[in-house]
Amino acid sequence: MDYQAVLEEVAAFARPLVGRGQPADYIPALAEVDTGHFGMAVADVDGGVYGVGDWERPFSVQSISKAFSLALVLAEGGDRIWERVGTEPSGNPFNSLVQLEYEHGIPRNPFINAGALVVTDRLQTLTGDASTTMLEFLRAESGNPEVSFDPAVAKSESEHGDRNAALAHFMASYGNLDNPVPTVLEHYFWQCSIEMSCKDLALAGGFLARHGLRSDGTRLLPRREAKQINAVMLTCGTYDAAGDFAYRVGLPGKSGVGGGIVAVIPGRCTLCVWSPGLDARGNSVAGVAALDHFTTLTGWSVF
After folding, report:
1. Where in the sequence is the domain holding 242, given as residue range(s)?
2. From which residue to which does any coiled coil extend (predicted)?
3. Is 193 within any annotated ligand binding site?
4. What pLDDT does residue 44 have?
5. Cα separation of 277 and 52, whole Å?
6. What is the pLDDT of residue 94?
7. In the annotation, is 239 catalytic?
């Protein structure tokens, strides 16, 4: 596969869509991001990496971090996390409170905000420092020691995080958080504030394409648990548009409101695309189209 040629064709296809949509204006630090950016990277299972456009420009990973926190919890603590969070699509916005009351404080899946807070809580219990543990992991897997938090984004999220605080307190009332709510929120906001490029994220997510093997060849996860993450990414990874994403793209994917999407082709490669203009469901307009075109050109999907 000539990845570079494919990426150039994908970028040309997506170019008319770049700039469409809106940035995540409910997080003030992200509201001013230029929606004219577009970057895309592919990292194959052997560590080769290819890119186009703004593929080396860092951006706020936001909810993409949820896939990595889930992986670290499974690696550190095994599958006990599934006693506290489900694996079903929610069908509701990612910050909805509605289902928690009906389902007694058990989030529907680990990629809605409530579920991610439970995963962060578990990672904090297992490691004593959830956000730093994730940062160190992402630096190691991406091979980039410059990956870092963005304090301005973390502060902005904290100052406008009332809905997340409500979710956390509600789950705490059902006994589904082990750590104090302020601690869980702090680490959650910091992990969402991490800045990475498409290149960094494609490399860091490589363990999901390698069925649980890290970049150095050591095993992070058993093959079964890597499969579980990919499965939940396919069904739940793009907010309440997961069904449409699976229909169009046909790959496990995790999006973030910073405009990034990571997608996995098990056994082949990991993709990351970034363009900050979001659709009404919080997914990158140009990013989804680019991934759709990539799978059309290559014929690669999980189906």
Report:
1. 3-298
2. none
3. no
4. 98
5. 18
6. 64
7. yes
Per-position DSSP letters for 121-160, written without gaps between them: HHHHHHHS-HHHHHHHHHHHHHT-TT-B--HHHHHHHHHT
CA dihedral in degrees (14, 150, 107, 221; nearest 10)?
80
In a domain, 303, yes or no: no
* Local structure of 272: helix, strand or coil: strand
Other beta carbons within 10 angstroms of residue 149's beta carbon come to 17
User: Is 157 annotated among the ligand-binding residues?
Assistant: yes
CATH number of the domain to which 226 belongs: 3.40.710.10
Residue 142 a catalytic site member: no
Q: Would residue 228 count as lying in a domain?
A: yes
Residue 245 lies in a domain: yes
Cα angle, residue 132 at apex, residues 66 and 263 outer, rounded to 5°: 30
Torsion of CA 95, 41, 246, 138, to 10 degrees: -50
Classify residue 259 by its DSSP letter.
Answer: S
| 66 catalytic per annotation | yes
- At 193, the amino acid letter reads S
The helix/strand/coil state of 227 is: helix
257 is catalytic: yes
Q: Is 188 part of the annotated catalytic residue set? A: yes
User: Among 153, 257, 264, 285, which one carries the catalytic annotation?
Assistant: 257
Q: Coil, strand, or helix at residue 20?
A: coil
Enter the DSSP assignment of 239.
G
pLDDT of residue 93: 67
Is 257 assigned a ligand-binding role in the annotation? yes
Res 95: pLDDT:
67
User: CA triplet 146, 150, 152: central angle to 5 degrees?
Assistant: 155
State the total domains in the chain: 1
Q: Is 235 inside any structural domain?
A: yes
pLDDT under 70 in the chain at which residues?
93-95
